[in-house]
Amino acid sequence: MTKTFSSLLAIGCLVSGTALAQDDLRTMALDMFAPIPSTTPSFENNPVTPEKIELGKALFFDPRMSASGVFSCNSCHNLATGGDDNMPTSIGHGWQKGPRNSPTVLNAVFNSAQFWDGRAPDLAAQAKGPVQAGVEMANTPENVLKTLNSMPQYVEWFQSAFPEEANPVTFDNFAKAIEAFEATLITPAPFDAWLNGNDDALTDLQKTGLQVFVDAGCAACHAGINVGGQDYYPFGLIEKPGADILPEGDKGRYAVTATADDEYVFRAGPLRNIAVTAPYFHSGAVWDLRTAVEIMATSQLGADLTSEEIDAIVAFLQSLTGEVPEVVYPILPPETASTPHPSGVVIE
Amino acid sequence: MTKTFSSLLAIGCLVSGTALAQDDLRTMALDMFAPIPSTTPSFENNPVTPEKIELGKALFFDPRMSASGVFSCNSCHNLATGGDDNMPTSIGHGWQKGPRNSPTVLNAVFNSAQFWDGRAPDLAAQAKGPVQAGVEMANTPENVLKTLNSMPQYVEWFQSAFPEEANPVTFDNFAKAIEAFEATLITPAPFDAWLNGNDDALTDLQKTGLQVFVDAGCAACHAGINVGGQDYYPFGLIEKPGADILPEGDKGRYAVTATADDEYVFRAGPLRNIAVTAPYFHSGAVWDLRTAVEIMATSQLGADLTSEEIDAIVAFLQSLTGEVPEVVYPILPPETASTPHPSGVVIE
């Protein structure tokens, strides 16, 4: 393997040497990846309007959507810190620890499905999960609606966001508004500028890293707009990592499909903003990006990459760190006498 | 009392009837209160610069300032919900409950001292408290500095904010930067527009409420720019409320001064944005503003206000709800290999 990659490195260095070689690399890359679009993604069943985005932003940042009043969507998918929370697994209601690492909300709209096991087909379905999960926000749809209906400002915002509906304050629309806001959370990166034709947007080392990434086989699973997030693969295809990284109790997609083939199968992580979303893997057990790349090479590809090759891949991955759109912190509707009080009580 | 206040109501109604009466009311009001200034307040020992404000904003929103990575300043002083957290007392590290209601950070710069017992002379001193409190953020100055120093972007921001210091990353400067950001969190309200000469900024009922507020004696304690927050008074001056509202275990300012006279003495609550910062009192035991006004009238003034008088005061208090300045949500520096990992471990 080392020999092959040494020659790849040589190719990689050549890439930056000639315009033709760079064009070849770009043509190959565009065959596997795609740049982030310049406009907000759309949904067939959920038109994205400015009113819906504003409502969704309010809901995303509102801790009153949790039973305790402590957690909002933004608590675990913090837009200030890469769209995730910098923890192995999140802390939720009653100081419980979640089962899996919180994935970034940035560019999540480009994943083919949501959650590490893909159990939610889209962002709206995803948004209904954590709100109700006992270890996360521990709320109920009924209490969410009671909370929203208690604040006239929220009712008005729902009316503006869903103008054709007689009773727009529903849990489905709650989720659709959040989906609309999250569709705006896309982060164009140097890699996109390079895919779009700017030769100088990547460094030579990053271009070499891209070549190694593709030739080593990483792109077989980590492809598409999100450089991952498109399909499911066994963690440990070639060599199963230790239980510290792949805990035995979490069988991944098996919980969704109940198919033996899906034991320890997880969605290939989307790699956009990966350099700013440590710790890594569904277990959140690995803090260092370089180590994560090494583990992937061994467990998924059986590849014994050189230190230089790993460095180049890490450099390429850093070119996926994008610009987070400017978000004005919302001013939320004030509570009224009928707003349910927060309850930090943990039901055992 | 009722008779007196009925005549006051009559005066109040007159107030709106003639320009002269209104001018008299304004002259009287300007003798007790002051409008929010049009510029950011300054500090003798802490010049407020754009760089310091930006750094302070980042620190204010950064959950990595807490040991667990769960709580930022904004968790309990949420700018989206009136600068507080809508809970009787906050939930902190390890799901512990705090001892007192979280006061709003909005306009806190105008309080003569910070905390319900005034134990911090200024916002910088205040900012050092919750970070270290075991029931709140449970961190140490050492770990805060280790965290900040691990991120080159933060070190640069400290250098820009404190350009004359050789080693600007200190816990004192951490607090000073937060103080500078908090100085920008001032909220001009209809009451200010009226104090500044706009006759139409208050409704007739609000003007009547102001007159009742002053004549009943509320303004004896709730005065100044913040309509409170200036001095300390026994809770239950005339009639002590029940232990549900005034818990016996919390002796207020006595803990600061160890003077018997200071038992159950608290800072008069600043009333700006009071309509959007329920629940009320240091115990957070009362959810309804009208009820809170009734309790104050009885316990502090021995006044038996009519229902109309209470209504008028509540209407006046609503004129203190101001416009929160637009805050762009910060993008925080990414962690590095040397950033301390979050620890949700609770030390018993």
UniProtKB/TrEMBL annotation, chains A, B:
Heme c 1 binds at residues 73, 76-77, 93. The keyword RNA-binding does not apply. Heme c 2 binds at residues 218, 221-222, 296. Binds 2 heme groups per subunit. GO terms for cellular component: periplasmic space. Residues 1-21 form the signal peptide. GO terms for molecular function: cytochrome-c peroxidase activity; electron transfer activity; heme binding; metal ion binding. Its main location: periplasm. It comes from the Bacteria. Keywords: Electron transport, Heme, Iron, Metal-binding, Oxidoreductase, Periplasm, Peroxidase, Signal, Transport. It is found in: Periplasm. Its cofactor is heme. The keyword Zinc does not apply. Transmembrane segments: none annotated. Binds 2 heme groups. Residues 51-159, 204-321 form the Cytochrome c domain. This is Cytochrome c biogenesis protein CcsA. It comes from Roseibium aquae. The lineage of its organism: Bacteria, Pseudomonadati, Pseudomonadota, Alphaproteobacteria, Hyphomicrobiales.
